[in-house]
Design goal:
alpha+beta; Pnp Oxidase, Chain A; UbiD C-terminal domain-like; five-stranded mixed beta sheet
């Protein structure tokens, strides 16, 4: 776990994964152009130490590689965390005393990660400085693309509560800065924040927006968790230590004690203001539309706060690795409902939700179609516009293998499944806003029970004995 965003920055620098930029660069478009070039070249995290017109340094591309994404979550590999989640999703009924003890240790430790109120006196790090008066213009908020409606806060953790149950949600919703104390709140139709606002009716909402701190917090705000799981509990699991929470100054919201910034405020569910355009992760501008408005009541921050940001746009970008982390970490949870699922790839080039490539252990005719519809019924997988289902021996991360098998094993007249359903609100090609077509492609080997009357051919593979003989003489061939 990391005690602060600066702690993570130090770890990146020691690992050779960070470059400091002392030259004064403008947050208005210039930082985007520099960062975009670095992201597309697979370059390091960037710490802009002197952004023009701002009082704080800016960190970007901190999640922009598999190594940095794993470092952010305190692991050597993303699959290490996935394996731990997989282990937790397979609770075997204990029989012996030893098994019962192991069971208790395995699941009892989750209680250690429940967020708790910070104890002891003293000012929490996130409130070391109270900005008086609060001014968002002191932060190096990025204007990312030329046609953007203005500067946008791009890595906010938005804390809201269910007005009926009080249950917390932490989501990541971009925030267009209108002035020093007013922003938009891009709560999309299918998001929990929007659900909280609709349930609030006309009653004002108290909101806190956090920036920075342990990067596990930031990732947890992006994770497609079931509504029953608290994002701060998940963050505690990732960082192996419970999140310490403190009350805000002007709103009744608890936030992590060690984040870099806390922006407190209120939101009137009946108020709307034009938000956007915004160059989005689809690579296209999302159009200007009315969205809720957030009114700042206070800004507090650490004494040496660092402002975290990201940019999105034509892939590949930094968010490719946030998406890859979600793909790896949540695959075990999908397997609890679909045990036939072997692997999954959500390509960044397809903005994650536009294409899902999965492999399955096929057991019966029509199995691929069952998997398509099951995935469309699972949380944010409902946004998957195209699903390709392949056999278990296909490497879904090798596009050569995928394209070979997908195009070779399917007949468009037989193997394409069309359906209608919810789509991401950012999908500009949908027939209707947030609603349109889905396509599933059954690229598995076809069986007689699926209408195949001819013999299905074997893949051309070399005899293993020949491969061994060639291996033995390879060094003598001069190749």
């Amino acid at each position: 776990m990391y005690s602060s965003l600066t702690h993570f920055i130090d770890a990146l620098e020691r690992a050779g994964e960070l470059r400091r930029i002392g030259y004064p660069v403008d947050p208005d478009l210039e930082i985007t152009e520099i960062s975009d070039r670095v992201m597309k070249a697979g370059g390091p995290a960037l710490l802009f130490e002197n952004p023009k017109g701002a009082d704080f340094p800016l960190l970007i591309n901190a999640f922009g590689s598999e190594r940095r994404m794993a470092m952010a979550l305190g692991a050597k590999r993303l699959d290490d965390i996935a394996e731990e989640i997989a282990d937790l999703t397979k609770p075997e009924i204990p029989q012996s005393m030893g098994q019962k003890l192991a069971f208790g240790l395995k699941y009892g430790r989750l209680a250690l990660y429940v967020p708790r109120t910070r104890k002891g006196g003293g000012t929490p790090p996130c409130q070391e400085v109270v900005m008086d008066p609060p001014r968002l213009s002191r932060l190096p908020v990025l204007t990312c693309w030329p046609l953007d409606g203005g500067p946008f806060i791009t890595l906010p953790m938005v804390f809201s509560h269910d007005p009926n149950t009080g249950k917390r949600n932490v989501g990541m919703y971009r925030m267009q800065v209108y002035d020093d104390v007013t922003t938009g709140m891009h709560w999309q139709l299918h998001k929990v924040g929007m659900e909280h606002m609709l349930d609030a009716g006309r009653k004002p909402m108290q909101i806190a927006v956090c920036l920075g701190g342990d990067p596990a917090y930031t990732y947890s705000a992006t994770a497609p968790l079931p509504k029953e799981i608290d994002e701060m509990l998940f963050a505690g699991f990732l960082r192996r230590q419970a999140v310490e929470m403190v009350p805000c100054k002007t709103v009744d919201v608890m936030v992590p004690a060690d984040v870099d910034f806390v922006i407190e405020g209120t939101l009137d569910p009946t108020e709307r203001r034009i938000e956007g355009p915004f160059g989005d992760h689809t690579g296209y501008y999302t159009l200007a539309e009315p969205f809720p408005v957030f009114h700042v009541t206070a800004i507090t921050h650490r004494r040496n706060a660092v402002y975290p940001a990201t940019i999105v746009g034509p892939p590949p970008m930094e968010d490719a690795w946030l998406g890859k982390a979600t793909e790896r970490l949540f695959l075990p949870l999908l397997k609890t409902q679909l045990p036939e699922l072997v692997d999954m790839n959500l390509p960044a080039e397809a903005a994650f939700h536009n294409l899902a490539i999965v492999s399955i252990k096929k057991r019966y005719p029509g199995h691929a179609r069952k998997v398509m519809h099951a995935l469309w019924g699972m949380g944010q997988m409902m946004f998957a516009k195209i699903i390709i289902v392949l056999d278990e021996d296909v490497n879904v991360h090798d596009m050569t293998d995928v394209l070979w098998k997908a195009t070779g094993n399917m007949d468009p007249s037989r193997d394409v499944e069309m359906a209608m359903g919810p789509l991401d609100q950012l999908d500009h090609a949908a027939v209707y806003p947030s609603y349109g077509g889905h396509m599933g492609i059954d690229a598995t080997t076809k069986w007689p029970g699926e209408g195949i009357v001819r013999e299905w051919p074997e893949v051309a593979r070399m005899d293993p004995a020949i491969k061994e003989r060639v291996d033995a003489i390879w060094s003598k061939l001069g190749i």
